[in-house]
Each structure stands twice: as structure tokens, then as C-alpha cells.
Amino acid sequence: MAKTDTRLITFAISHYCEKARWALDWYGIDYTEIGWPPGIHRILAKRAGAKGGSVPLLLTGDEVIEGSDAIIDWAAANATGAKPDLCPADRSAAIRQTENRLDKLAGVNVRRFVYSHVMPDKAHYVKPMLFANTGFVHRLAGYLMWPACIRLIVKGYKLNSHSAAESLAILEVEFAWLEENLRPGHGYLAGDTFTRADLTAASLLAPFARPAEMPIYHDAQYPDDLMRTLDAWKNRPVMKWVRQIYRDHRY
Q1: Tens-digit pLDDT profile for residues 69-96
Q2: Secondary structure E strands in the chain
């Protein structure tokens, strides 16, 4: 399959997009990654035939696959490499249950916690990462929509003086839950091999763990208060685990 036939539509910074990207790489799928700017991405998604307006999207020429979970399913069904299946049948229920929890709690609140520190008055910290890999015309339109996009993000994620603390409380529970499941002798979340549960946990926490294998996270700079929090988390067992999973399984 030629790279021009399969396009992965992303925000480069998005951890859900990293989840989809990792799965495509794992299963040996050739693709071209294309960035769509925030705001205009909703218009472009509708034009591409998507039912929703979110990324990641996978456009194959024949299909529009929406969301990281569905993209992993598609990649598994169209695998070209020799890597093991990320969802063995005998563990499928436990793997998907873990993945669903991570998507709904950790993933959502990682994003909300970061946005709470940068929106609206420090949005310049994330703007370059949201506009990475975008074409000139789309980028220009995105820049024009950027002020309105910031307002929509603030409203959509209910960002206010309490939102960082609210998301932090949820994240602390999820960190503790993961660390309990990854206690000594249990290096994976669902059995003794790497699965999509581990891929999900590692990709969704990568913006905090900042693995060297993902420069967009490793090199990102944020406001001082957020950077202090990330530094304080650096040696937590779950963050060390994320970085180890990247070293062992990302490339």
C-alpha cells in the first residue's frame, strides 16, 4: 500500500494521535501523516466524510476511520509486518476494559490539565505543536481562526480556576491505579506481553513522561508551574514505566 493512499490526520501534540500513530507503525502500515490545524479540522473532517469532527482520522481512499481505537482495529486487520497482535483473543475483554478506562479518564484529563495551564493567555506554548505538519493554506486559515479556537477550547473543556485541580485529582487516582497494576513482577497491564492496553497507557501519558523517542513531548516547553509539576512526576514509577515501554516497544 503506497503512502499516498493512506493518510493519518493528526494534531502532532495529541496523545490520542500518538496512540494511532504507534499502532500503525507497530503493524507495519505505510501512511503519510498530515496535520490539520485546530478549528478548521472540523470543517475538513466533514468534507472528508467523517461523521464526527475529531482527530485522529485515517483516510485510506476507500474508508474514513475515526478515533484511535478504531484505527488500531483497522491496523490489526490490515497488518503487513510480523509483530504480534496487540489484542490476543484470550485477553481481549481485559485489554479493552483497561483501554477504555485509560481513554475516558487518563487521556481526557491529561489534555485538560495541560490546557488548564496554557489557555487562554499562554496558548502560544502549544500553538506550534498544534499547527505542526500543516499545509500553507490550511495553516493560514487556522491562524485566522485561532482566537475563536482558543475560546472554543476553554468552553469545551470547561477550563477555569478550578479545572487544573479537578483534573489533577483524577490523574492522581489513575497514576496510583496504574502503579498498583504495574507493581514489581507485573511489567504489563494485561498479561505478560505488550498489548494495546500498554500502548494506550504509554501514549496517553507520554506528554507527562516525556520519552526521548518522542521529541515533540521530550522537548516541549510549558509555563513554569506546569514544568515544575512534570519535573516532580519524573521519577514516579508510572512515568519510568512509560519511558521503558517507549524504549522497548516504540521503535
Answers
A1: 999 999 999 998 789 999 999 999 999 9
A2: 7-10, 32-35, 57-59, 64-66
